[in-house]
Amino acid sequence: MTDINCLLEQFTRDAIEAARDGKWEEVIAFYDRRMSEGQFEHISPSTAQALVKQDQWLITRVREAQAAIKKNLHEIQDQRRKLEILKRQWGGNSTAQARHLLTI
Known about the structure:
The protein is mainly α. It has four helices and no strands. It has one domain. The longest helix has 45 residues, at 45-89.
């Protein structure tokens, strides 16, 4: 295996490890480094196949992370709406009234 094959596979493995740890900035950095090598025309077919398979795994993890973030954002929005309803029921922006209710 040539040096470029090893290097590209190592960057990809490092990116996958970072993804497993949720270190998405590192994933981006490893892929930037992989792309900066720019010698994809010199890699072996088996390395290209391995990189595609690993990339597909990573794309799946990114989509799962995006879905989890989207779900959390929806939950936060729901909680925010509920808090706004409570705030209105307590009389708007009156912090004195809210403090009074909390002491009861």
